[in-house]
Amino acid sequence: MNIAVSEHIHLSEMRSADKAALIEHLQEKAIYERTLRIPYPYTEGDADAWLARVERAAREGGPFAAMAIRNEAGSLIGACGFDGLVEGKAHRVELGYWLARPYWGRGIMTAVVSRACAFAFAQFGLVKIAAHVFAGNVASARVLEKCGFEQEGYLRKHYVKDGQFVDVRLFALLK
Question: CATH homologous superfamily of domain 2-127?
Answer without folding.
Answer: Gcn5-related N-acetyltransferase (GNAT) (3.40.630.30)
